[in-house]
Amino acid sequence: MRPTSGxxxxxxxxxxxxxxxxxxxxxxxALVKVPLDQSSVTISKAQNATVLDFGTLSERTAVNLTAxxxxxxxxxxxxxxxxxxxxxxxxxDDASKxxxxxxxxxxxxxxxxxxxxxxxxxxxxGAAFKHEGLTYTxxxxxxxxxxxxxxxxxxxxxxxxxxxxxxxxxxTVYKFEMTVExxxxxxxxxxxxxxxxxxxxxxxxxxxxxxxxxxxxxDSGVIVKGQEKQLQTLRDGTGPDKLKIIDADxxxxxxxxxxxxxxxxxxxxxxxxxTTVVPIVLxxxxxxxxxxxxxxxxxxxxxxxxxxxxETGDQPTTDLPSQASSEPVDEPTVPAGGRHAVERSEP
Length: 347
Description:
Blueprint: H1 3-31, E1 39-53, E2 58-73, E3 82-93, E4 99-110, E5 116-117, E6 123-124, E7 127-128, E8 147-151, E9 156-168, E10 171-191, E11 201-216, E12 223-235, E13 241-252, H2 254-309
Antiparallel strand pairs: 1-2, 1-13, 2-3, 3-4, 4-5, 4-6, 6-7, 8-9, 9-10, 10-11, 11-12, 12-13
């Protein structure tokens, strides 16, 4: 094989090695992003909740609730840098099938960091609102630290603190907790009797508090399990809670956890392919080509002088005895019989 073939192999191998280095550093970050066509439905359930029956204006206890949350990506308004989600949440009384609460949300987020970005007519319940912090997912490569996580009901971001590392649905997950202290979210007019007032109607403050716990698969940022201890109450001007609107401990169902775990595993496998498997394969193949190419180049360089010695015209002649002599040499003749004539010497 010619030396040029070896040089070609060395160049090809070097190209693959460069690709092995570039894939995790440049290619993977460009490809590992929040999908534009996000589509998921998560279901949470609460047992023995307390809710306000607005028909009778009385509290109902021992109520079982189901919360459906649908997340749909708006592909048209997304691009290489941002994803846009339309989200709807319905909390339903399992017994009566009546809706307890309904909410909608539209948010844009950075496809790499998962942080909210101002864009695309974002709103909460149809009213324009600028989100902040993380929403619905954590970043790729989630760290053991505190993140700002947005609460739609309070309409602000709160610290979600790393608590511990646990095992869940066969995955290693990071556990985060955030606390929303009681905050006034609206004011409504209600019958005075509802709050123990003699007035026909009074203004009541609607207050909201929550303790949210999130279990996150760190490589993908997928929330495998979510849990909320939510409390909404009515207060009069004196301050203390007078009536519960909702008091519930909602958590992802087992099926939803399995669904989220599968999504996390699939995303993690894709990330691992781009950041580990492909670079290793390219690196090993590139190294093999470089070594093979160098071997061929060195072998060709060593064989070069030997090949020059055997070219026509440069071959050494065999060292034969000289045929030249100062005296003539008598050649015996061969008779027709094919045998030499032998003379006997007489004594």
